Amino acid sequence: QVQLVESGGGLVQPGGSLRLSCAASGFTLDYYSIAWFRQAPGKEREGVGCINSSERSTYTADSVKGRFTISEDNAKNTVYLQMNSLKAEDTAVYYCAIVVGKNCHQRTWDYWGQGTQVTVSS
Length: 122
What we know:
This protein is mostly beta strands. Helices cover 0% and strands 51% of the residues. The chain has strands at 3-7, 10-12, 18-25, 32-39, 46-52, 58-60, 68-73, 78-83, 92-100, 111-112, 116-120. The strands form two sheets. Strands 2, 4, 5, 6, 9, 10 and 11 form a seven-stranded mixed beta sheet that branches. The protein has a four-stranded antiparallel beta sheet with strand order 1-3-8-7, with no helix packed on it.
């Protein structure tokens, strides 16, 4: 059973940084993509970025480009979302999701984590 566990959320002041982690387990395929999404209260879920295991390609949404970076530690089966220069509008629950055998450009994802809250406030 594939499992994704997010961690690293919390309260941070505007301009601060956080690093979220998404630890993946329960699969052995080499080709997969892991994406980060977020959802703020009253808003639709938004894709933040994605990394593909085989292509080593990463994508970030325009709303976070230049501030957020996605990376992966294959030895730990963990994907990170480094968030810098955080703004109040980045406040949301952040989720990671995985799709096995496909690239980042997907509308549906196979498995989701439980989410971690990020609150940016002074």
